[in-house]
């Protein structure tokens, strides 16, 4: 099946209505829900209408969701109608490359454009307070879940709208209790579900932490919430390090292993981890944990709006950096395997006009798509001043744990931070998996592979089986909470870690049996590293000063993942 569209669907973001200086604000979920009951009612109804549209409509929910991966058909006349499966990857998404952050920017803008258009039409149907509804629809933008920040609502770490099967909606006909489309999307027709691999082909709705592999499966939202809560502190530290320590696009943009990595996770590495946390992979993978079907879960856009926001924050801090040349290691529907890409590469299938696509060079400013993030309200137009303002905001949002540790444990103005560096071949298991780090029985954090569940049908997955990804788990907070240490210097820390640190594997082999870390992930490399870091004082030095990195390869000797320093 293919879809050819005339005219081609263009991605504009929400229309400006002639008000060039006015752009809508993308808000944190809690600010968004408390600002007005009207906006959430419009949003839910708009999603419901998008989800009822046929797949043949390029702006329907299933059509937009299918851009990311399956059903591997042409969207909006972009690319050939029948791609060769031996030379082209089925989906359009650009994972593992320098285009990862920028490709998703017009994707979220397309979703926002479609949902706002539906909301504007719904607003016209109200007879009471119609102008107020119209104003809310005009301002409607995609909200984000800031999964890296401290929860604002005690006891509610995950947005309620993502985990409630029912929700109250003010419709033009009155208040109703409706099925919540953000809880799950119910597929309307056999296609595209018929193209999904098992177990996804058995399910008629999107699921998180599925309870079984058959058609009776339900989402286990309690498991979703508890797993996120167990990872929240680590994600916060990872995000802080990403935004304040990575200064080049190559290191910031993607998860592919680097020759000289900075001790901080890339934006894509954190993104991968959150996909797995939201979807779940045990005992069955949820839709968000597989890139071929993740786009059909509404949580995808709450997640990716935040990923785009983190891109905006990083760019404000590093205002001279943008997309650097690189390769597309996995290939896509329109990019060949290992294609050379850069700031002028087409971000297919997102049409800028009838003749051409958006390029990374076109979308540096969020105003291009008529939106802004609440983080930038009241900030300076001077790039250098703005960089410091955003650094201070990032520090306030995500740096609390790191700075508190430094104040308590620093010596001569610096603290020695401890981390685990993890590398593996991402396609080795044939599905998404996580490498989990423990100190004793205490779970600390993990690094995840976010990959297709059926690589045997993906030529480039087979071709790129040696593609290595990397990530870091930060140990310092967990260590000082668990042990009373005289200092954080190697003489005091190394014996503790040598005795108590370990890694486990969560994932499954193609036959559905649990994977074994000793036998099924031979590419795994794990090493402890430490680094002296100075955080300065207050707003005098919002970006940390980093010292030399020391690796302690022998700490993992005799444990899964250990390799000698010369083989690292």
TrEMBL record:
Cofactor(s) it depends on: Cu(2+)
Source organism of this protein record: Fibroporia radiculosa
Pfam families, sorted: Tyrosinase (PF00264), Tyrosinase_C (PF18132)
Any one Gene Ontology molecular-function term assigned to this protein's record: tyrosinase activity
Name of the featured protein: tyrosinase
Stated family: Belongs to the tyrosinase family.
Catalysed reaction, written as an equation: L-tyrosine + O2 = L-dopaquinone + H2O; 2 L-dopa + O2 = 2 L-dopaquinone + 2 H2O
EC number(s) given by UniProt: 1.14.18.1
GO biological process, one term: melanin biosynthetic process
The keyword Plastid belongs to this UniProt entry's keyword annotation: no
Tyrosinase copper-binding domain ranges (all copies): 95-112
Keywords recorded for this protein, A-Z: Copper, Melanin biosynthesis, Metal-binding, Monooxygenase, Oxidoreductase
Domain of life: Eukaryota
